[in-house]
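Good morning N.,

You mentioned wanting to compare the apo and holo forms, so I went ahead and generated the holo version with cytidine-5'-triphosphate. This is what I fed in:
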Amino acid sequence: MLKNKKILVGVSGGIAIYKALDLISRLRKQGAEVRVVMTEHATKFINPTLFREISCNPVAVTLWDEQPEFYAEHIKLAEWADILVVAPATANVVGKMAHGLADDLLSSVALAIPVTKPILLCPAMNSNMYANVAVQDNLDELLVRENYFVVEPAEGVLACGTVGLGRLPEPQELLEHIDATLGEWYGDLVGRHILVTASGTREAIDPVRYIGNKSSGKMGFAVARAALSRGALVTLIAGPTKEVAPVEANVINVQSTQEMYDACLEAYPKVDVVIKAAAVADYAPAKVAKEKIKKNNEKLDLTLKKNPDILKELGRQKKKQILVGFAAETTKVLEYAKKKIKEKNLDFIVANDVSQPGAGFDVNTNIVKLIDKAGKVEELPQLTKDEVAHRILDKVLKIEKQNVSRKK
Ligand code: CTP
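and this is what came out, ligand included:
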């Protein structure tokens, strides 16, 4: 969602202003176009030249420029933007926006943003200031308006030495909030609740050992990010992974297949789509040793019992949901994938040959085929996992459209 989006960043005079520079740099790396409006107070902390260089655009500060880039600059900037992000937003700026005051360029731009565009405020201040009833009332007042969104400040050590709520979240988190807000406002998956599973499950042998599947979680996390950036509500049920969860997802961490099964079945009635990217352990030790097993014998036999098939059960209970499975194979990819579609009552499956270079575990690319229940095969070239995720979601939307048309 960030690519080619026009993001107007309002920067007000708080100590967290240094994070705004990093945020702008990240936004541009994602393909967004950025313009910056600074308050006079903000320019006391950082010279606008630095924001100009980072954003690669002129920086606007005052309504009274002798040579403004545009005439009626506050109106033109508001017309230009797809979103206004105020980061950091001081108590003063929040107050002005809540009460419709327009005594400088940033507050005037904020008033000129029409209700058809989102405004995202990222307040950052001392924790007592943030807790003050005046600030909280102002934020409540803004949140009543449909196009206003607020990123809660983080807890931690503040510049003044206080420990508490009031820190501006890290730039990467801010970026994810902006992406999700754009998705919520402009995305084609708004109103859908998508359940994504990711990574492998682990089955305990004893307190220190487990058996599990190879899986980095990269594909599932890419699907979760893509769905959020297109406006979906995302529940992400993940096994152990090094991947960092998207800040806007509802994340449920699990270890074993049984835990993933319980979490999926609980969430299932509330979701519209399930994308089951997790590599689930099919078998678990029949008995888990209470103490660490000692290597006293030359041979160790493990008896395994079959785990429940989560996707099969979801297929059995399926009502309105669109079910998407994954099939990571090393041979007979199409044959096995088609069999799984039938057995698990899927709408389509994402099949790949994990023995191919550029596909499968621990790499950032994948080479997949999307196979639907009618047997239609869509072969995708080698793409990044983020791109594959978007193609999967495109297919979900296509199926949703077909389902709606069939019901008429
Ligand atoms: N799956 C599941 N629960 C299981 C096993 C698999 O939900 N116990 C899901 C996976 O998340 C994936 C799909 O079913 O979306 C296919 O998984 P895969 O491991 O390829 O196939 P299996 O059904 O386990 O069959 P096999 O291991 O024999 O290939």
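The first strand starts at residue 6 and ends at 11.

Happy to go through it together on a call whenever suits you.

Best,
F.
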